C-alpha cells in the first residue's frame, strides 16, 4: 500500500499464477505446460533471430505470423490478431468489447483470470453456474442482458468440452454482443469454433501457443474473428504498445505454427498419456471428469485433496490445488499430463499415500 496508489490500484484483486518454486527440481504438473520441447524448427528460427537481428525493432504488425496462422486456419490475414500471450489478447478484448456497462456472462467455474480482468475494467461478472456434472448449459446463455459472453472450450479447470453445435446455439442466442471462445486447450481433442467465423460476425476465437505448441516461454497468443472485430483489437493494441511481440517470439511462433506435423505429434502423445493416466488414477479410486485437454480434474471420495497436494509436493511432484475454500471444487486437484515417465512417478507416489 502506498499513499500514491489510486483507488483503482487499491481495489484490484490480481491473478495468482500456479506456483513456480525454485527451491528444487519438481515434476511440474501444475501449470499445464507441455512436457515436450517446442518444434525444432521454432528453436532454429529463434537462434537465427538472436544471432543476427536483435538490434532492430520487430515487425509491429507481425505479418509473417499472421500469414502462417491465416494459412493454417484457412482465414484471411485481416481475420487474425496476435498478442503477448492469449492473456494479453483477452485483456484487450475485455477492455474493448465488454466494458460497456452491462454485466459479462461467464461460467461460475472457469479460468479465474476473467474475474480479474472484469475487476480491472470495472465489469460486473454475471456468473452462469455449470451443471452438477460441470457442464456448460447453452440454454442458460439465452435472454441475458449482457455486454458479452465468454466460453472456455474445453473448459478449465474442469477439462470438459462442449460440442460445436452448442457453441453455435450460444452464438445464435447472442447476436448483438461478442461471444469470446477461449480455446487454449482445443488441440487436445475438442472441436474448434474457427469453422463458424465466416458465419458469425460476433464470434472471437482465442488460442495460444503456450499449451499445445509447448511455447509458454515466448508468450504468444492470438484471436481469430471477423475483420471488424480484429480491427478493433488492433486499434487498442496500437494505442497501448506497438511492439508487444518481440523478434524472438515472432520468429519462433511463425515456425511453430507452420510445423503442423510436430503439433499433431506432441498432442497425440499427450492424449495417449492422458488416457493411460485416467485408467491409472481410476484404479486408485479417483473420480475423473472426462478431459479433452492436457490436464485432468480429479477428486477422491475418501481423501482430502489438500493433503494429497501437500504430500505430493513433499515428494517433489507439483499439482494444482485451488484452495479448500473454493465453492464446488474445494476437494479437487488439477493434474497436468506430463510424459509417460512423469505420470508413472505420480502414480507410484499416490500409491504410497
Ligand atoms: C493458459 C490459459 C490461457 C493463457 O495462455 P497464455 O497464452 O499463456 O497467456 C488463457 N486461457 C486459458 C483458459 C488458459 O488455460
TrEMBL record:
EC number(s) reported in the record: 2.6.1.9
Keywords: Amino-acid biosynthesis, Aminotransferase, Histidine biosynthesis, Pyridoxal phosphate, Transferase
Aminotransferase class I/classII large domain: residues covered: 25-349
PROSITE patterns per the UniProt record, alphabetical: AA_TRANSFER_CLASS_2 (PS00599)
Highest taxon of source: Bacteria
N6-(pyridoxal phosphate)lysine, modified sites: 211
Gene Ontology biological process terms from the UniProt entry: L-histidine biosynthetic process
Cofactor requirements of the protein: pyridoxal 5'-phosphate
Listed InterPro entries: Aminotrans_II_pyridoxalP_BS (IPR001917), Aminotransferase_I/II_large (IPR004839), HisP_aminotrans (IPR005861), PyrdxlP-dep_Trfase (IPR015424), PyrdxlP-dep_Trfase_major (IPR015421), PyrdxlP-dep_Trfase_small (IPR015422)
Subunit structure as annotated in this protein's UniProt entry: Homodimer.
Family per similarity comment: Belongs to the class-II pyridoxal-phosphate-dependent aminotransferase family. Histidinol-phosphate aminotransferase subfamily.
Protein known as: Histidinol-phosphate aminotransferase
Amino acid at each position: 500500500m502506498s499513499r500514491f496508489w489510486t483507488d483503482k490500484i487499491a481495489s484490484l484483486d490480481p491473478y495468482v499464477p500456479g506456483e513456480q518454486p525454485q527451491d528444487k527440481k519438481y515434476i511440474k504438473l501444475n501449470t499445464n505446460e507441455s512436457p515436450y520441447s517446442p518444434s525444432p524448427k521454432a528453436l532454429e528460427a529463434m537462434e537465427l533471430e538472436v544471432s543476427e537481428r536483435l538490434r532492430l525493432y520487430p515487425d509491429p504488425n507481425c505479418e509473417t505470423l499472421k500469414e502462417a496462422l491465416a494459412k493454417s486456419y484457412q482465414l484471411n490475414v485481416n481475420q487474425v490478431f496476435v498478442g503477448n500471450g492469449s492473456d494479453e489478447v483477452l485483456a484487450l478484448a475485455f477492455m474493448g468489447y465488454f466494458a460497456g456497462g452491462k454485466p459479462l456472462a461467464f461460467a461460475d467455474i472457469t479460468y479465474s483470470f476473467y474475474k480479474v480482468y472484469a475487476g480491472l475494467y470495472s465489469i460486473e461478472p454475471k456468473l452462469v453456474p455449470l451443471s452438477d456434472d460441470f457442464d456448460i448449459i447453452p440454454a442458460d446463455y439465452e435472454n441475458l442482458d449482457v455486454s458479452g459472453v465468454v466460453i472456455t472450450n474445453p473448459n478449465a479447470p474442469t477439462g470438459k468440452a462442449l460440442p460445436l453445435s452448442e457453441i453455435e446455439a450460444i452464438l445464435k442466442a447472442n447476436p448483438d454482443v461478442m461471444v469470446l471462445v477461449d480455446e487454449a486447450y482445443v488441440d487436445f481433442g475438442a472441436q474448434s469454433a474457427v469453422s463458424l467465423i465466416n458465419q458469425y460476425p460476433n464470434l472471437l476465437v482465442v488460442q495460444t501457443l503456450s499449451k499445445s505448441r509447448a511455447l509458454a516461454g515466448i508468450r504468444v497468443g492470438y484471436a481469430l474473428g471477423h475483420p471488424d472485430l480484429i480491427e478493433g483489437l488492433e486499434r487498442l493494441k496500437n494505442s497501448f504498445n506497438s511492439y508487444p511481440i518481440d523478434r524472438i517470439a515472432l520468429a519462433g511462433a511463425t515456425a511453430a505454427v507452420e510445423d503442423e506435423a510436430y503439433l499433431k505429434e506432441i498432442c497425440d502423445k499427450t492424449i495417449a498419456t492422458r488416457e493411460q493416466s485416467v485408467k491409472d488414477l481410476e484404479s486408485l479410486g479417483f473420480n475423473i471428469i472426462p478431459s479433452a485437454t492436457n490436464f485432468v480434474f480429479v477428486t477422491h471420495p475418501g481423501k482430502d485433496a489438500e493433503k494429497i497436494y501437500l504430500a505430493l509436493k513433499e515428494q517433489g511432484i507439483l499439482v494444482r490445488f485451488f484452495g479448500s475454500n473454493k465453492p464446488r471444487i474445494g476437494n479437487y486437484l488439477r493434474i497436468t499430463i506430463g510424459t509417460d515417465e512423469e505420470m508413472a512417478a505420480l502414480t507410484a507416489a499416490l500409491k504410497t499415500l
